[in-house]
Amino acid sequence: MKKQSFLYGAVILTAGMAVVKVIGAVFKIPLQHTIGEYGMGLFNVAYNFYGPIFSLATAGFPVAVSRLVSENASLSRWNHVRAVKAAATPLFLGFGLLGTLLMTLFAPLYCRQVIGSEYALYPMLALTPAILFACCGAVYRGYYEGLRNMGPTAVSEIIEASIKLCLGLGLAVLAVRQGRAELAAQGTVFGITAPGADQAEFLILAFAAAGAVLGVTAGSLGAMLYLSLRWRIKEDGVGLRTRRKSPPAESFGKTAKALLKIAGPVAAGSIAMNAAGLIDATFLQSRIAHSMGQAPQRLLAAYEGMIPAMYLEHPESIPTFLYGCYTLAMTLYLLVPALTQAIGMSALPAVTETWARGDRPQLKERMESVLRVTALVCFPAGLGLTALAAPVVGLLYGDGPSAPIVAGALLTLGPASLFAAVGTPVSSMLQAAGRADLPVKLLAVSMAVKIGINWFLCAIPEVNIQGAGVGTLVCYGIFVTSQLWCLQKVTGVRLRAGSLFLRPLGCALLCGGGAWAAHQGLTGLGLGSLTATGLSVAVGIILYMAGLLASHALAKKDLLMLPKGQKIAKTLEKRGWM
């Protein structure tokens, strides 16, 4: 199997991720219009509860498989490579079954006792089989990524997102139509009698959210089936003759132990990362409910004219409504870390290879390349999102009364997305260097700070959900700074952090400031929202590229790893831009 360079693999994953995010936007935007902020709140409660359990079952193993496969492949120990997959398969299956069982058992308790919303139980239970399907597919993803072939992962993610879009959105629309038709004809919602008209509407939205979640479950199944079928047809390209020349494989028990040694801390770190969403889902709603009980007028005054009458008539639904608004901002915030997730996945085997060989000069080169590319990608995205928060929210979610709430949350989450985006590749490099325990330890401290900030700020009536954005910003700022310090201590490589980050940051500030000024001017001339926002984004991109070229922020060695990179680098050198 032909290896892909670090950046080439990242481009493949990023392209796949871009398609997935476009499909996700096509899924979530009409879904929000179908089930509203309350339904989105239920949808995201299920997702955030699912996240930590899903990570417990799957997140550590793909990284562990990728690292062990990469390490053994770099030393031509091909029998060891196959032994890693053989040991990972039953472990994945066992953890998948355990994760499914845990979510099924604890979902009712969480809904009734922790967040006080029984309606969230329907989407939660619809999501539980996804853990098992994702576990079975994750072993193949980790294996191919370890061999530096990112194609199967990208294709499987597109398949998963496509099924989620078609089936999930279709089921949500169907549930709303059928539920309202049955309510009008018989006074029940799918055979259930609600105590009042508003409660009946909440129940319909709960079933619609469950339908949307079923699309997620079906997508996980589709991705798993694709990966298993691809393995049966093509395997990994390592022939029998090659394996006969390599050393014999280690025993199942020894390989499984090596997997668990890596997977344990990685899974714990991923659980902590996903727990951020669960922290928001839990503390945000409970602290807002506390604020509503203590000073309802002060909180409602902060959102005068922004909360629909249906929720005002039922104050107990307001925390879920505001949380739903916050999750809409989080959907946009997560686009930025998603861009660098591909870089982290591609960096892991590339850095592991140089670390296993003890090639320190190349290790420094690859580490700096990872950080430089990360900054070039995420800095303009995060600051551009902050600069155009209000128009982007209005364009994607409509100019409804809740749009200012979503845009306000995004103003804080935009800068936070920069730190979150840098954190993923740095964690991957620490894992590649054999210190998978450090990200989880550092993240635990950062999350403790986030919990404290959320607990204090979210209970202030005038602050409420905006406090969660502040907590996220501080949390990931601490996390990334401490990770970079530890990475240099572990590897013995001194990184030129100033040159790696300052030039892209300056160009990104130019991008965001230019986009904001352009939007202000264009709307002042009377242009429509879509035209003004589109032209503002174009202005920001042009200014960013001009800044990069003028400051010589693009490195030739990075461009050479791209498809047609040699031709691009040669053109830029001729013009004196490199």
Can you offer a commentary on this structure?
This protein has 578 residues and is mostly helical. It contains 21 helices and no strands. It has helices at residues 6-74, 78-114, 121-127, 129-146, 151-186, 197-234, 240-245, 252-294, 296-302, 309-313, 318-333, 335-357, 360-387, 389-397, 403-432, 437-457, 466-491, 497-524, 529-550, 556-559, 565-574. The protein starts with 5 loop residues before the first helix and ends with a helix. The mean pLDDT is 83.
Query: Using DSSP, what is the number of strands?
Result: 0
Shape call = globular
Share of β-strand residues = under 5%
Number of helices: 21
Percentage of residues assigned to helices: over 70%
Nearest-angstrom radius of gyration? Answer: 24 Å
Secondary-structure element order, as H and E?
Answer: HHHHHHHHHHHHHHHHHHHHH
Give the helix/strand class.
mainly alpha
Low-confidence stretches: none
Major β-sheet, in short? none
Q: What is the terminal separation in angstroms?
A: 33 Å
- Assembly context of the chains: single chain
The average pLDDT value, as a whole number, equals 83
Chart the SSEs and their pairings.
Blueprint: H1 6-74, H2 78-114, H3 121-127, H4 129-146, H5 151-186, H6 197-234, H7 240-245, H8 252-294, H9 296-302, H10 309-313, H11 318-333, H12 335-357, H13 360-387, H14 389-397, H15 403-432, H16 437-457, H17 466-491, H18 497-524, H19 529-550, H20 556-559, H21 565-574
In a few lines, what is going on in this structure?
This protein is mostly helical and 578 residues long. The protein has helices spanning 6-74, 78-114, 121-127, 129-146, 151-186, 197-234, 240-245, 252-294, 296-302, 309-313, 318-333, 335-357, 360-387, 389-397, 403-432, 437-457, 466-491, 497-524, 529-550, 556-559, 565-574.
